[in-house]
Known about the structure:
The protein has 947 residues and is of the alpha+beta class. The strands form twelve sheets. Strands 13, 16, 17, 19, 20 and 22 form a six-stranded antiparallel β-sheet that branches.
Amino acid sequence: MNxxxxxxxxxxxxxxxxxxxxxxxxxxxxxxxxxxxxREYTLEATMLGYIGSDGKRNPVIKASRGxxxxxxxxxxxxxxxxxxxxxxxxxxxxxxxxxxxxxxxxKADKNDVYYCTVPGHxxxxxxxKIEVVEGPIKKEVAAAGxxxxxxxxxxxxxxxxxxxxxxxxxxxxxxxxxxxxxxxxMHEKDMKIGFVGKYFISSGGTKNYKRTGTLTSVPFTVxxxxxxxxxxxxxxxxxxxxLVQADNNKVIFQITxxxxxxxxxxxxxxxxxxxxxxxxxxxxxxxxxxxxxYIGDDKWAHINFDDFVFHAARPNFPNELKPSDIIILxxxxxxxxxxxxxxxxxxxxxxxxxxxxxxxxxEPDIVRPISFTIDHRGRxxxxxxxxxxxxxxxxxxxxxxxxxxxxxxxxSLDKRTVFKxxxxxxxxxEVGMGGVWVAAAPYLMYIPIDxxxxxxxxxxxxxxxGFGYQDTHEMLNNLKWxxxxxxxxxxxxxxxxxxxxxxxxxxxxxxxxxxxxxxHPTSKKFELFAEGTSNPWGIDFNDYGNPFVTVCVIxxxxxxxxxxxxxxxxxxxxxxxxxxxxxxxxDHVHWIGDRGPxxxxxxxxxxxxxxxxxxxxxxxxxxxxxxxxxNNIFMNNIHGSxxxxxxxxxxxxxxxxxHGADFLLTNDSWSQWLNFRYDQSGSVFAIDxxxxxxxxSPNPDVHQKTMGRIFKISHETDKWVKIDLAKASDKDLVNxxxxxxxWYVRNARLILQERGPNKKVAKMLKEILANNPDVTRKLRAxxxxxxxxxxxxxxLLSLLGNESEYxxxxxxxxxxxxxxxxxxxxxxxxxxxxxxxxxxxxxxxASAMQRTDPAxxxxxxxxxxxxxxxxxxxxxxLMLWYGLEPCAEIDAAKALTIAQKAKAPKLMxxxxxxxxxxxxxxxxxxxxxxxxxxxxxxxxxxxxxGM
Length: 947
């Protein structure tokens, strides 16, 4: 992706609440003659935190009571940042470009907290304290140090001799390390080193950072209880300073830089080593050379050092650097293999015990596989993306669809059929309803299948157009049938689409970028299912029909709720009154460090491999697979060359998703599995876009053009079955709904959906729905009844009283599917909103309200907002806001009355903002009667992420 475009388009919804003693900079300086303030601070804003001029991270901002204080921030990187005060409730403008500046001005009346409002930045560490002091502020001065000696001679540990006397160098990093200038000729011109005396040393600076080596002092005796020295440079495991006990070579202390040039003092307690000999070792084993084509080298792969001295008592430095201030990136991960043949690649992998990996197909039979599915016969339909990364001229596309089959069960895909050639910029495909559904921006197409010849039964039909392809790795992708009979897909944040039927005007189109969309194959309806995330490239549904997506760059795991708006990598939500979005469901990320996800690439083994994910498979195949895999989410980690597994657990209205043990290591840096699916035996097929370059580039020459693989991962209990579900009777297809392998269920449902309504099928499915003891089997029957039109409204209304919260929830969603709830349904929804004890049911009700005329939402919303137990739920507070917000335009006074009853902490605040945005004399008059008095959330012990 274009990283600059990523960052410069990242805009953030801001909140301004007038405070009694705080002013935005614009308001303050618009007053003539008031451009004075008593105290100024300048901070550099970075993902590492706010950095003071002396290098201190998130320094305490001190001011005497009553002073006017100005805090200026300078953007230290190409990233969006701002600064806000928590209690004063003011914020600066958002910085975008490196070097941009902004300020806030306030009166120092009380202690406060400053922080960055950009989503995720405060959590990453951009937060500090403001301390109001009574009386004048005293300047802190550290005590002078004592130089180390050996045999009565003062050692050159501060380099003031301008040489490396008393030191020994290895490698080339310290060939010419002594520097006497600031700015340093070894660093970039805008970097301030701030060294003590006349000299400091560097292992290469930002000019010669590729050099490696060590610098070791002579041993000397510890004569005082404390020591200090100055350090800066990379926060990398292999750029560090060590203090080593001389008699046993034990490292007794080590520290790195922080990824900055400013030298900062480090204090070491050496009381336990008094009268013992130690030595200093300065290590630079890091070249900083990038393995990623579009990301530059890490110029912080060096270390700067100065001024080692002893102290009798612990010195106090205002800008002291402590190990706890630094998140250190580990050494580069070992890359075992690269550029292997298909057979060698399969042998090199490390599957779990009981599993084997077999090469099922490889180049030249398969090249550049970007998407695949498995049909009702267990055959693989695979899309080859020869045109990527640029769309060809009309009629000149070179993409194609292949059909692969294992005819004898040996794991090899020995039969290969070309279904269709000449496609253009294909990004996904799915089979069902008599044809192949093809995502090829700007189109979603349908190609009918001649079932006798496995060839197209006609020309591609464009069912939708308007899909963008500005960024060709963030287009529509990952087509998959949902349990409700809709065709689901995902879409990335940097491609702008305006989707509708061919020839439709804008008024009949849907705008989307990041999110999940769906299309109904018979009603021909298209809609945005949920909005946000970054570049989702994987979606699947669990046993209860709940979808999950895997994404890149931002936190990677989201439980997808109909109508939800999620944390975005960039850009604004389409509704300007969103005000806040729902955060990730995952409680972890797969990368190391707080300098953004790219910094952890190829260093993140311990966290899961890196930020780039592709594919999503919730395993519901062979019942004999180890139990820990069922209903868990598999995704490929591209930079980590492995398959991650995440574990979802119910929490409130939704799920919290935790990190599980990795399922498989490919041990090959060229490996790029894009998706996987399980078949009728429970075995898993995976497609591998095998490529040295692991990141998207619009330059076609950056990507390989001749490679591709398909692998089959099998458990020792998997048993190959030759089958064709299309030949099964209706009765057999219904019975397949009880199979423990979901492959049978999904394909049976799809075939029954294609066959259409059938009273006998409906009767059999209703028997399962009514009497099967397993709620997942009931749900399977419910979904297939829905797609085969075997339900009437009364059936669904009766299910609203079912003992299972999952059944009640899905009855709500299916009743609201057509966006035309009857009065009877609305009445029952209002009753459930008031009395149902399930947070998930209340979540589905909140979703359903977004599909209901705002004028008909009042009773349901009024009941939903009053559940104190939902005030700290991960999803519900914001889902309630999204449902209630449009009511402000219908009746602002009534909307405010309901909002005032809300237990969610910010719903009233948001409604006041929303009514204020109407900006009419009537709305202003209505607001006069209200004050912002948010209800206190109930003490449930759960962290609240939504508002």
